[in-house]
TrEMBL record:
Protein name: Sulfate ABC transporter ATP-binding subunit
NCBIfam families for the chain: 3a0106s01
Alphabetical list of InterPro entries matching this protein: AAA+_ATPase, ABC_SmlMolc_Importer, ABC_transporter-like_ATP-bd, ABC_transporter-like_CS, P-loop_NTPase, Sulph_transpt1
All copies of domain ABC transporter, residue ranges: 3-230
Keywords: ATP-binding, Chloroplast, Nucleotide-binding, Plastid, Sulfate transport, Translocase, Transport
Any GO molecular function: ATP binding
Entry's Gene Ontology cellular component terms: ATP-binding cassette (ABC) transporter complex
The encoding gene: cysA
Length: 252
């Protein structure tokens, strides 16, 4: 078990962001956190990364109580919606930034990451010379450079147009298959979650409404809220769409 979230709650002033969350995320899974804006998804991710601490409850990472572990001790990579690249560094330098090993090892590892993220030809470019999709792949490569055991992705494709998004989500699923990592992806795009996640966690108002594989969520929504959430955004308008809306990768 990679991640065990036990009874975690968090308030900001009077605002309840998370209310007694219990969640298990098995090693190697790609899990999507889905739900409306303000439902607590980012707060939970930031807590896993160590940017926030829970008010109550515990977070276990690989069997250790990591609730108050500092960020560096968590072996986590984080990718944000806005890329957050260093503008004055080349792509190569951006990717190598977090590596605190010898020069030679850095070079070898960055080359490997450039290859993995299909950016070999862009290593001497600067971020402003890249498209949004390319920049986000650099952000992924930079997050992976420190060999994280857990990859946290907060709406990584939110700023990209629909076509790029669609390609990148398949690319992400393939990347996840290639490396030994547990990934958590925040999205408000139900179709994205359905297509690439092993498991979906549906949030509302700081609560977990339902956890299940995409097919379970789609076929057996546990509450009216889930039914509406799925229904409004995903009910396909034709049969072929319906057939592809079940992920090619999910657990049976
Ligand atoms: P989501 O990512 O699902 O959109 P968030 O986790 O960002 O939701 O937010 C959950 C709730 O907590 C919201 O009501 C939000 O306004 C509040 N919140 C999040 N971060 C802060 C903060 N740093 N200060 C005050 N309120 C916050
Ligand atoms: Mg958010």
């Amino acid at each position: 078990m990679s991640i065990l979230i036990e009874n975690v709650s968090k308030k900001f002033g009077k605002q309840i962001a998370l209310s007694k969350i219990n969640l298990e995320i098995p090693t190697g899974n790609l899990v999507a956190l889905l739900g409306p804006s303000g439902s607590g998804k980012s707060t939970l991710l930031r807590m896993l990364a160590g940017f926030e601490t829970p008010e109550s409850g515990r977070i276990w990472l690989f069997g250790k109580n990591a609730t108050f572990f500092p960020i560096q001790q968590r072996q986590i990579g984080f990718v944000f919606q806005d890329y957050a690249l260093f503008p004055k560094m080349t792509i190569f330098e951006n990717i190598g930034f977090g590596l605190k090993i010898q020069k030679k090892a850095v070079d070898a590892q960055v080359h490997e990451l450039l290859q993995l993220t299909q950016l070999e030809n862009l290593s001497n470019f600067y971020p402003h010379q890249l498209s949004g999709g390319q920049k986000q792949r650099v952000a992924f490569a930079r997050a992976l450079a420190v060999e994280p055991k857990i990859l946290l992705l907060d709406e990584p494709f939110g700023a990209l147009d629909v076509k790029v998004r669609k390609n990148l989500r398949i690319w992400l699923r393939n990347l996840h298959e290639k490396i030994p990592v547990t990934s958590i992806l925040i999205t408000h795009d139900i179709r994205e979650a359905m297509e690439i996640a092993d498991e979906i966690v549906l949030f509302q108002n700081g609560y977990v409404e339902q956890v299940g594989c995409p097919q379970e969520i789609y076929e057996h929504p546990a509450t009216v809220f889930v039914q509406n959430f799925i229904g409004h955004s995903v009910v396909p308008s034709n049969t072929s769409d319906k057939q592809i809306s079940f992920l090619p990768y999910g657990r049976k």
